[in-house]
Design brief:
alpha+beta; GMP Synthetase, Chain A, domain 3; 3-stranded mixed beta sheet; flat
């Protein structure tokens, strides 16, 4: 009598590959250099790449970016989408991958959320200080 093993137990599957993370870092570094040195679109001045999430099959990459305070995020998003072909061709030259990932751009409002939450904590702290007085 042979015992069948359930290979779906946690820890027995294929370990998660670190390659998508490494490719994401390479894309982030390359796009940062392109934004600093070669992009002439005024909508993209001051845009910073905050993170890159690459699909496990390396065929899609989500690019999250931030804009400086006071800059228009919608205009920056349009500028990033307009430069998508340029970015992709430059990544193809630099990264030497079989497939250059399809790029999709997203405004990263993480900093705004952090500021909003910190403001809430400050308000709670001040309210408690007022109650104790």
């Amino acid at each position: 009598m042979t015992q069948d093993f359930d290979f779906k137990l946690p820890g027995l599957g294929r370990p998660e590959s670190t390659r998508p993370k490494r490719v994401g870092e390479a894309i982030k570094n390359e796009l940062t250099m392109l934004l600093l040195q070669q992009v002439a679109d005024p909508r993209l001045s001051g845009v910073a790449i905050s993170r890159v999430v690459v699909a496990p099959d390396l065929k899609q990459a989500k690019i999250y970016f931030t804009v400086p305070a006071g800059a228009e995020s919608k205009a920056a998003l349009k500028g990033m989408q307009r430069a998508k072909g340029f970015f992709r061709s430059q990544l193809a030259k630099a990264l030497n991958l079989r497939y250059t990932p399809e790029l999709s751009f997203y405004f990263d409002n993480l900093n705004e959320e952090v500021e909003r939450i910190e403001d809430l904590f400050r308000q709670i702290h001040e309210d408690r200080k007022d109650e104790q007085s």
